[in-house]
Amino acid sequence: MFFKIFPLLILVQSSIQSEFFFTNNSPFKSVFKREYSLFDVWVDCAERIPVLFHYTAEKDNGSLPRSSNFALDPEVSRNCQQLKYSTYYKSGYDLGHMVPANHLDHSEQAIMESNFMTNINPQYSTLNRGAWLLSEEIIECLRDVDTLRVYGGAIMGNNVTNDLFISTHEIEAKSGFILHNFSEDQKEMKQSVSWSIPTGCDYS
């Protein structure tokens, strides 16, 4: 099966300062960046979903509860968002956070923003509560050791069996997700870890 890994992340170290930047070389031209208080997402208006995200995971110093209220982002055109903010009822899919609320639990505003549909993708329930959750828990532990830069995105595929939500939310479930994070420790060589998590695997 042919997959287009979108977006294509190219991490380029600046010769002037020790920061990293990425370039989006995707063929899709309808992508825009939405900046929130503690994270950024890149939304593809044609797909109506977030296709890339970035945030900084700092040492855990909060324990605010996660909200269960989802919503459309009032600052983003409805033409660029899912038609609804309701659950993917009886589909086997969860409302999957790209940027997890648990990594923002020191800010009520950021937790609220993480529940906008611009931060949500359909994720198969065993993926959302299995491998994706495990990656969040690993980052949760590592961020207490050092500040992390976290990037991730959706893997775009051409599997028509994923087209489950066209009639309800006007979106397609994606073929998987990628996640990359690296340490910001300036005293030692930066270390990184990446995951590629296909939707079709059994994570139970």
From TrEMBL:
Entry protein name: DNA RNA endonuclease NUC1
Occurrences of domain ENPP1-3/EXOG-like endonuclease/phosphodiesterase (ranges): 36-204
PANTHER family, per the entry: ENDONUCLEASE G, MITOCHONDRIAL, ENDONUCLEASE RELATED
SMART domains given in the database record: Endonuclease_NS, NUC
Gene3D superfamilies: Extracellular Endonuclease, subunit A (3.40.570.10)
Recorded family membership: Belongs to the DNA/RNA non-specific endonuclease family.
Residues annotated as domain DNA/RNA non-specific endonuclease/pyrophosphatase/phosphodiesterase: 35-189
Transmembrane segments: none
Residues forming the catalytic site: H97 (proton acceptor)
Signal peptide: 1-18
UniProt KW keywords: Endonuclease, Hydrolase, Metal-binding, Nuclease, Signal
Residues given in the record as Mg(2+) binding sites: N128
Pfam families to which the protein is assigned, alphabetical: Endonuclease_NS
GO molecular function: endonuclease activity; hydrolase activity; metal ion binding; nucleic acid binding
